[in-house]
């Protein structure tokens, strides 16, 4: 049985990924930061284990990964966003966005890789965003962190391919989760009108692509970015 570590697995896209990977037969380690009850409830439902750590804290990441034992699949999903003018976002908040979204992705990858390299197998899937591909006004720090994830994915894929490890990226568009709960009904309608397929994404849409990239059906795919955005960014 494969073991998957899903960061930010307690809710939203991460939760859908945990459920999908469990359905595919994986044992899932559900990482969370604050949502203990949700993570533990999910762990019960999918027969996984909830583990608390902050992806931005390398010491906690290293300890959690070493306690976990063999990890076959790492899904770097944990992320935060903030909407405001670039010059209005406090430095501390801007640093937090970068240290969770980008550095957190790098921390978890750094922690799982030595064992994957020695076993000559493993798979890492990073969750970026369409804003990392095309940039979003008023989400400059977020866009930069997500663009960084794409660059990280491509470079790491080249470095670890000779060790039999694949690294890919899923780049979601507008997916209905708590991250987007700040938008009014009117704003949501305006956003929806810009989506060629005319509907918002669901966490399960992202989970489907993650499951594909985690499967043997994608064994010849590495260093790629799969966009799951209803055609919003092409
Ligand atoms: P969400 O509903 O806000 O959930 C965020 C998840 O990240 C939660 O499980 C949260 O854990 C976890 N998290 C946050 N900071 C963490 C930290 N320091 N350490 C560990 N876990 C942490 O977000 P979502 O919409 O599902 O987004 C998931 C990913 O998809 C993010 O990377 C996001 O940028 C990306 N994405 C989302 C959309 C979208 O439209 N929703 C679009 C493109 C990309 P706790 O609840 O335990 O604190």
Please outline the helices and strands.
Elements: E1 3-6, H1 12-23, E2 27-32, H2 36-46, E3 49-52, H3 58-68, E4 73-76, H4 91-119, E5 122-127, H5 130-134, H6 140-160, E6 165-172, H7 185-192, H8 203-214, E7 225-228
The protein binds NADP nicotinamide-adenine-dinucleotide phosphate (NAP).
NADP nicotinamide-adenine-dinucleotide phosphate binds next to helix 1, strand 2 and helix 4.
Task: Describe what you observe in this structure.
The chain is α/β, with parallel strands linked by helices and 234 residues long. The protein has one domain: NAD(P)-binding Rossmann-like Domain (Rossmann fold), CATH 3.40.50. The protein is built from eight helices and seven strands. Strands 3-2-1-4-5-6-7 form a seven-stranded parallel beta sheet, sandwiched between helices. Helix 1 crosses helix 8, helix 3 packs parallel to helix 4 and helix 4 runs parallel beside helix 6. The longest helix has 29 residues. It starts with a strand and ends in a 6-residue tail after the last strand. The mean pLDDT is 98.
């Amino acid at each position: 049985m494969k073991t998957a570590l899903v960061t930010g697995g307690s809710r939203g896209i991460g939760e859908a990924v945990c459920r999908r990977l469990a359905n595919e037969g994986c044992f899932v380690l559900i990482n969370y930061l604050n949502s203990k009850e949700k993570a533990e409830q999910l762990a019960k439902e999918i027969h996984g284990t909830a583990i608390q750590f902050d992806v931005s804290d390398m010491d906690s990441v290293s300890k959690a990964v070493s306690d976990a034992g063999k990890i076959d699949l790492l899904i770097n999903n944990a992320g935060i966003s903030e909407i405001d003018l670039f010059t209005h976002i406090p430095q501390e908040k801007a640093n937090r966005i970068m240290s969770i979204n980008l550095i957190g992705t790098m921390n978890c990858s750094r922690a799982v890789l030595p064992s994957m390299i020695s076993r000559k197998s493993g798979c890492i899937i990073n969750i970026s965003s369409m804003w990392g591909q095309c940039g979003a006004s008023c989400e400059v720090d977020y866009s930069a962190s997500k663009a960084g994830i794409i660059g990280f994915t491509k470079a790491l894929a080249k470095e670890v391919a000779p060790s039999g490890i694949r690294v890919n990226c899923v780049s979601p568009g507008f997916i209905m989760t708590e991250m987007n709960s700040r938008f009014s009904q009117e704003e949501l309608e305006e956003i929806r009108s810009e989506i060629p397929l005319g509907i918002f994404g669901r966490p399960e849409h992202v989970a489907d692509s993650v499951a594909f990239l985690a499967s043997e059906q994608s064994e010849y795919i590495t260093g790629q970015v799969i966009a799951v955005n209803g055609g919003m960014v092409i």
